[in-house]
Specification:
Strand order of the largest sheet of chain A: 1-2-3
Oligomer: homodimer
Radius of gyration of chain A: 30 Å
Low-confidence stretches of chain A: none
Number of strands of chain A: 6
Largest interface: A-B, 131 and 130 residues
Shape of chain A: elongated
Distance between the termini of chain A: 75 Å
Chain lengths: 437, 437
């Protein structure tokens, strides 16, 4: 299938972000009318908007009208403010009303994702009548996997899948074959929750109802794949310690990107300054025993690493709904034990590393055994603290109404660095007091 | 809809990971026959397997037969080795043959995701005949969004959506209304690539064909939502610096989890030991100017933070196909400039922090201005190096055939720590040589 024109459209779509404005126009013009439509449909909403605004007005109208209302709404959402009015004017009256209604919803609610066009049936039709009726309705539906059964008040009574319609007897009544126990969402249900429902119930579409049970539209699963990708990207960027970008890396302006990264980096830097304050307090110890300074990066980074492991693990579990706020105590207990186990592994490696180096290079002076013990005990303490702090921070953020993904690896590392220094020098005092200190 | 029994099933599904074996059994038994089926269908494959194996044999047979072949294959894949044979024996002959064929594919290939049952039509049928024929076929199809048109040799000729069928004239021939330019995948296409195709083309199902063009099955989009979530979870766990877990956090055994975290943590610790080696080389400098030790955590963590920002950003862009190997030079150039800009921001903050503290607490001795300059220049160097190393490492890993997500935040931080120390002490020599050093 690689040499078919459809595959060529896929190639162009893949190359799109890497093309100049001119290149995009040339690629678009090189296609036949039908293929241009395919290309337009396959682009993301911001790409569609940018392409559309390069075209003359009569062509804009043609391509805009190819889109179902939810996709038109996305395109207009992504377009520059001064062009929105003009784009809306290109739609026919019915579509414009639908798009305006959709634009009123928050972008990441079920209402913002839904398509107001869906296949509807009456409960008292027969299956044969329903199939005939759907053949007439077909033109107005984006996707027909299910038909929804509505009462005279437009309230949702049930759903029939096409499979149900095809396998039932032609003379059966729709309310006999429909499933009346429907998984539905409200207009303001968050898109992450909608995605979870799709995944839990293996559905192809979910109806959106208002508080009175009146059906407003459907969310289809093809929109959910994009939602899931977007949410994961946002979480990953936050875990990496930055504000989420709004578009692809190469299409984000240089200064916007620097700004989104500089904010967190500067905040972390201010937090990390506490290490300088802590270190100043330990200057006397360091001048007495410079050997202690040697292990500072090793100790604090081990705390940071174990902390970022724990926090990313818990962030993702919360995002997938595997772990909820109520589980915090179970997680805390588990992570304390994990921390001790992981810290002990590092302590053993670190202890023998010092003994071996001492044997070969005589690096650490007469009290090398006490230094090795200091490092080993500190590692257990620091890793345990890192693991516990890293696993609890996402819960704290969620409890405070913030995004758990903000418990980024760098954030946790910074938090653990200061504590790590305090743990290290406290252990040093206990172990080395009277000898080196 | 919250008090309907369907909603109650959703509650049980959500609570499932938090229930004991006994509690699961009780919840299951508390439902009517139909609801039990709903519950079973909504569980994940490992949960289904665990529940099934708790049931007596005649019930096992009933529930196993509710699943379409691709889901049965997943369930059997997830079951303990000694139970697989027994479960396969519960299937009817046709299903068993299908499941065995599916089990032969790698789990994360298109072949491992596909359902061998799909709606098929002949090119020379009329639309009316096709609709009548589909009504007969219905019982054997998991999902009917599209019907596939096959020639006598079972080669894929085209596809008709139900919408096409419903809107076409009843007398038209199928080969007149079908789309012959089909987006299809091979059996060994990676599931990430399949997910990208779904997202790019807004499809509900994609046909799987063998090298000769013979149609083998379909991958449906509801399976892809799970794939996308799984792949993102794997990436996030790797970015957090650990091996990906295979199941939810609370269901993973304690020692298995410790093992998956200890491996990377120990590897990072061994890498981080280079900092101790580097620090040993600078012991003389530290004893001459203890004030230098004060800023070590601040400097190295800034490098680590900027590095993990850059690496997570690039890892995700590569995973989404926004950035490819060919873009490495564009990214490198961009990240060098970002690094200088971000480093300068931190340098300015750090410089004034030292001047202010000196003014208030007189912390840093006579040469405080030179110390401040050392810190500032080091920050620019370290952040630039961190940003560049963090952004290039995912490319290097991809080039070497490894997963870019292994360029975890902790991995990058460790890499940058050692270099950070070298940069810091080199700058210190240049700026403070003749005064403090």
């Amino acid at each position: 299938m690689t040499d078919s024109p459809r595959a060529f459209v896929s190639e162009i779509v893949a190359a799109w972000p890497h093309l100049s404005e001119n290149g995009r126009m040339q690629a678009f013009r090189s296609l036949t009318r039908d293929r241009r439509e395919d290309l337009f449909l396959d682009l993301t909403a911001p790409e569609q908007s940018q392409l559309l605004l390069m075209l003359p007005e009569h062509e804009r109208r043609t391509y805009l009208r190819v889109l179902p209302p939810d996709d038109s709404a996305d395109l207009i959402q992504e377009s520059p403010l001064e062009t929105k009015e003009g784009l809306l004017a290109l739609l026919d009256d019915k579509s414009r009303a639908e798009v305006l209604a959709l634009l009123a919803y928050a972008e990441d609610d079920a209402g913002g994702l839904m398509n107001p066009r869906f296949a509807r049936l009456r409960p008292d039709m027969t299956v044969d009548e329903a199939i005939a009726y759907l053949r007439l309705q077909g033109r107005n539906m984006e996707t027909v996997y299910y038909a929804y059964v509505l009462g005279h008040d437009q309230k949702l009574l049930g759903v029939v899948s096409f499979r149900d319609l095809f396998t039932a007897s032609g003379r059966a009544r729709i309310d006999e074959v429909m499933k009346s126990d429907v998984v539905a969402v409200k207009e303001n249900t968050d898109q992450e929750e909608v995605a979870r429902l799709f995944s839990a119930h293996s559905l192809a579409a979910i109806p959106v109802i208002d508080p009175g049970g009146v059906m407003k539209g459907i969310v289809t699963i093809d929109d959910i794949v994009d939602v899931v990708q977007e949410e994961a990207t946002e979480d990953i960027q936050k875990i990496g310690g930055m504000q989420a970008l709004e578009g692809p890396y190469l299409e984000t302006g240089f200064w916007e990107m620097v700004r989104k990264r500089a904010g967190w980096l500067a905040a972390l830097f201010l937090g990390e300054m506490l290490t300088a304050t802590a270190m100043s307090r330990y200057e006397a110890e360091i001048s007495k025993a410079v050997v202690l300074a040697v292990f500072i990066p090793l100790i604090i980074s081990s705390g940071g690493n174990s902390g970022s492991q724990a926090s990313t693990l818990i962030i993702r579990s919360i995002a997938l709904g595997e772990v909820t706020l109520r589980d915090w105590w179970r997680v805390a207990r588990r992570e304390v034990f994990s921390g001790v186990a992981l810290g002990s592994v590092l302590a053993i490696i670190g202890f023998f590393r010092i003994l071996i180096w001492q044997g070969v290079f005589h690096s650490y002076g007469d009290h090398y055994l006490l230094v090795a013990l200091t490092v080993a005990f500190s590692l257990i303490g620091v890793v345990m603290f890192g693991t516990l702090a890293g696993s609890m921070l996402p819960f704290v953020l969620r409890r405070a109404g913030m995004d758990p993904a903000s418990a980024s690896a760098p954030f946790v590392a910074t938090m653990v660095d200061v504590t790590g220094l305090v743990i290290y020098f406290t252990v040093a005092h206990l172990v080395l007091g009277g000898t080196l200190l």
